[in-house]
Design brief:
alpha/beta; TIM Barrel; M1 Pyruvate Kinase, Domain 3; Pyruvate Kinase, Chain: A, domain 1; 3 domains; 8-stranded parallel barrel
Length: about 475
C-alpha cells in the first residue's frame, strides 16, 4: 500500500521511466513514494522496454492495490542535427551553412533532418541549436542552402535538436514513427497519449480520428511548446483531454521571460474547461545528479502547486538520474507542505453555464465544492462511469478529497492524473442509500474519513440507471 501521506496529496506526480528506473523494484519504490503516472518517452524508449513498463505497472497495481496510469509520449516532428566532426566550435559572427542532409556537421556546414527548411525559412529567421545554446540568423537562401551568421556560438553536439521559433514549419505533427507508437499504446491499453509540438486543434482531431479508426480507448494530452499552440490555446483545450506545459521547447520557441506568465495562463484556462494540466521540464533537474534540489527548483515546484496544476512531471530526473525514488519522495514532500499551508490559494469557482447540456450535473459539482469548503468537509463522494464528475469537481480545487467510485477499472487509472482524485472500484448499485452507506464505510476503513467528519455525497437518482448527477447530500459521519 502507498504510504498514506503520499497517497493523500492532491497534486499528482508523473515520472519518466528509463534506464535508471526500469525495474519492478524501483518502480514499486517510486509508487510507494507518491508516483501517480508512469511516462514512456518514445523519443528514447523502444517497444520492447515500453512493454516491460506496461507489464510492471500492471503487476504492481494489482499487488499494491494502486491505480497508477501510463502515459505514452509521442516524439513528434523533432528537428535534429546528425553526427558531428571534430572541428565543431562555432565562433560568434562567423558564417555557417545550414542544409538538409545526413553528412557530418562541422563549423562550416550543419546538416539537419528537415527537407523543406530552405522553402519555409525567411531571411532574418533564427535557428536555435541545443535548446538555444547556439543561435544562428538566416542571411541568405541559395537553392537548398541557407547562409547564416552566428549570433551566439558554442560547441555543436551530435543528435541535438534545433528550433525555428519564427518559422511556420510544414512537417506533419504525427509522423510515421508516432503512428507506430500510437498503435502500441492502443494495443497495450495505455491510458494517456501525449502529442508533441501541437500547433492547432486540427492536430488533435487527426490524432483522435486515428485512435477511433483503430478502436482505441486512450485520452489525449496536448503538449504546449510552440508559439502557434499558445495562439490557438482555447481551441486546443476544447479538443484535448488534458494539456502539458512543456517548458523545455516552449522556453526556446518564445522568450524565456514569457514562460512563467504563459504557465499561469495555460493552467487557468485548462482549469476553466475542467481539463487536467501538467507542468513539465526541469522541475527537479539538479536531482539528476544531486541528493537534493536547489532552492530555486523547490520554489518553482511549489509555485506550480500554488498555480493549481494537476500534476508535475519528472523527465531525466527519474529516467537517467541517480536517485529516481528520492526525487519522487522529495517532490511529494514539497506538494504536501504547500497543500497544508495557510498560504494556499483559494481558487475562484467556475460557475456552470445554463447552455451546457450537463448544466444540472455541473451545478451539483459546483455546489459540492462550495459546500465542502463552507463546512470543512473531509471528502466529496461521487459515483461516475465516465469520470466527468471527477474532473468537474477537481477543477474547482476544493479543500476536501475527491473520492470517486466507479465500476470501470480502467477509468481508475486514467483518473490518477487528475488533481485531488482518489479512485475506488465499486460495482453495487442497488439503491442510492445502500451505495452511500457502503462507500462511506470503505473510506472509513481506508482512514480517509472518521466519525464526526462532514462528507458530501453526489449521485444520480435512480442510481441503477447511472445517468447524469442530479442529487447532493451533506452528511455528518456517525
Amino acid at each position: 500500500m502507498i504510504e498514506r501521506k503520499y497517497r493523500l496529496k492532491r497534486t499528482k506526480i508523473v515520472a519518466t521511466i528509463g534506464p535508471s528506473s526500469l525495474s519492478k523494484n524501483k518502480i514499486r519504490k517510486m509508487i510507494l513514494a507518491g508516483l501517480n503516472v508512469c511516462r514512456i518517452n518514445f523519443s528514447h524508449c523502444n517497444h520492447e522496454n515500453a512493454l516491460k513498463i506496461v507489464s510492471i505497472v500492471t503487476e504492481l497495481n494489482i499487488e499494491l492495490n494502486s491505480h497508477v496510469a501510463i502515459m505514452g509520449d509521442l516524439q513528434g516532428p523533432k528537428l535534429r542535427i546528425g553526427e558531428v566532426e571534430a572541428e565543431n566550435l562555432l565562433i560568434k559572427n562567423s558564417i555557417v551553412t545550414v542544409q538538409e542532409g545526413t553528412k557530418k556537421s562541422n563549423n562550416k556546414n550543419i546538416f539537419i533532418n528537415y527537407k523543406n527548411i530552405s522553402h519555409d525559412i525567411a531571411i532574418g529567421d533564427k535557428i536555435l541549436l541545443d535548446d538555444g545554446k547556439i543561435i544562428l540568423r538566416a542571411e541568405r537562401v541559395s537553392g537548398l542552402k541557407i547562409s547564416c551568421v552566428v549570433l551566439q556560438g558554442g560547441e555543436i553536439k551530435a543528435n541535438k535538436g534545433f528550433n525555428l521559433p519564427n518559422t511556420a514549419i510544414s512537417l506533419p505533427t504525427i509522423t510515421p514513427k508516432d503512428y507506430k507508437d500510437l498503435l502500441f499504446c492502443i494495443k497495450n491499453k495505455v491510458e494517456w497519449v501525449a502529442l508533441s509540438f501541437v500547433r492547432n486543434s486540427k492536430d488533435l482531431v487527426q490524432l483522435k480520428q486515428l485512435i477511433h479508426e483503430n478502436e482505441g480507448n486512450v485520452k489525449v494530452i496536448a503538449k504546449i511548446e510552440k508559439p502557434e499552440a499558445v495562439k490557438n490555446l482555447n481551441a486546443i483545450i476544447l479538443h484535448s483531454d488534458a494539456l502539458m506545459v512543456a517548458r523545455g521547447d516552449l522556453g526556446v520557441e518564445v522568450p524565456t521571460q514569457k514562460v512563467p506568465v504563459l504557465q499561469k495562463k495555460i493552467v487557468r484556462a485548462s482549469r476553466k474547461k475542467a481539463k487536467p494540466v501538467i507542468i513539465a521540464t526541469q522541475v527537479m533537474d539538479s536531482m539528476t545528479h544531486s541528493l537534493s534540489p536547489t532552492r530555486a527548483e523547490t520554489n518553482d515546484a511549489a509555485n506550480a502547486v500554488f498555480d493549481g496544476a494537476d500534476a508535475l512531471m519528472l523527465s531525466g530526473e527519474t529516467s537517467i538520474g541517480k536517485y529516481p525514488t528520492r526525487v519522487v519522495r522529495t517532490i511529494s514532500k514539497i506538494i504536501l507542505d504547500v497543500e497544508a499551508s495557510d498560504e494556499r490559494k483559494h481558487f475562484n469557482k467556475l460557475l456552470p453555464f445554463k447552455s451546457n447540456k450537463r448544466y444540472i450535473s455541473d451545478s451539483i459539482c459546483y455546489q459540492a465544492s462550495e459546500i465542502a469548503n463552507q463546512v470543512g468537509a473531509k471528502a466529496i463522494l461521487a459515483f461516475t462511469a465516465s469520470g466527468y464528475n471527477a474532473q468537474k469537481i477537481s477543477s474547482n480545487r476544493p479543500n476536501s478529497h475527491v473520492c470517486v467510485f466507479t465500476h470501470n477499472r480502467k477509468l481508475l487509472n486514467t483518473l490518477s492524473l487528475i488533481w485531488g482524485v482518489l479512485g475506488f472500484y465499486y460495482n453495487k448499485f442497488e439503491t442510492t442509500d445502500i451505495a452511500i452507506e457502503e462507500t462511506q464505510q470503505i473510506l472509513m476503513e481506508e482512514k480517509i474519513i472518521k466519525k464526526g467528519d462532514f462528507v458530501i455525497n453526489i449521485a444520480s437518482m435512480p442510481i441503477k440507471e447511472k445517468g447524469m448527477t442530479n442529487m447532493l447530500k451533506l452528511e455528518k459521519i456517525k
